[in-house]
């Protein structure tokens, strides 16, 4: 859970997840067109999201496609919401 929270703590990673959630699939280069940032910086953010299992990377010889793993996002949202409720 800490790895997921860490990955979601950066606003660019949140933006990447929102963009990927609206698209079925997106190549790394396409994100560069949508986010005004260096390709290497986007790649580092994608690496953090991959490490936290928030996205799925599919290797293609010409590019790396990234897609949101929605079940992980839903699972984390539920855990995060209930994990921080105060006990009465």
Describe the 3D structure:
The chain has 88 residues and is an alpha+beta fold. The protein has five helices and three strands; from the N terminus they run H-H-E-H-H-E-E-H. The protein has helices at residues 2-8, 11-22, 28-34, 39-51, 70-83, and strands spanning 26-27, 55-59, 64-68. Strands 1-3-2 form a three-stranded antiparallel β-sheet. Strand 2 (55-59) and strand 3 form a beta hairpin.
Write a concise synopsis of the structure shown.
The chain has five helices and three strands. By secondary structure, the protein is α+β, with helices and mostly antiparallel strands. The chain has one domain: Arc Repressor Mutant, subunit A, CATH 1.10.10.
Task: Tag the structure with descriptive keywords.
Arc Repressor Mutant, subunit A; three-stranded antiparallel sheet; 88 residues; 60% helix; alpha+beta
Q: Could you say which overall geometry the principal axes of the C-alpha atoms support?
A: globular
Provide the CATH superfamily: Winged helix-like DNA-binding domain superfamily/Winged helix DNA-binding domain
How many separate structural domains?
1
Biggest sheet: strands side by side, in what order? 1-3-2
Assign the structural class, choosing from mainly alpha, mainly beta, alpha/beta, alpha+beta, or little secondary structure. alpha+beta
- Helical content (DSSP H or I, runs of 4+): 55-70%
* CATH topology title: Arc Repressor Mutant, subunit A
CATH architecture: Orthogonal Bundle
Q: What is the helix tally?
A: 5
The total of beta strands comes to 3
Strand count, sense and closure of the main sheet?
3 strands, antiparallel
The top-level CATH class is: Mainly Alpha
Cα-based radius of gyration, to the nearest Å: 14 Å
Task: Calculate the terminal CA-CA distance, rounded to whole Å.
Answer: 23 Å
Contiguous low-pLDDT stretches (5 residues minimum) are none
Q: Which H/E pattern describes the elements?
A: HHEHHEEH
Provide mean pLDDT, rounded. Answer: 75
């Amino acid at each position: 859970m800490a790895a997921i929270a860490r990955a979601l703590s950066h606003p660019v990673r949140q933006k990447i997840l929102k963009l990927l959630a609206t698209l079925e699939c997106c190549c790394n280069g396409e994100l560069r067109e949508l986010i005004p940032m260096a390709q290497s910086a986007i790649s580092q953010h994608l690496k953090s999201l991959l490490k936290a299992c928030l996205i799925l990377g599919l290797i293609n010889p010409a590019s790396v496609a990234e897609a949101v793993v929605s079940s992980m996002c839903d699972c984390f949202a539920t855990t995060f919401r209930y994990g921080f409720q105060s006990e009465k």
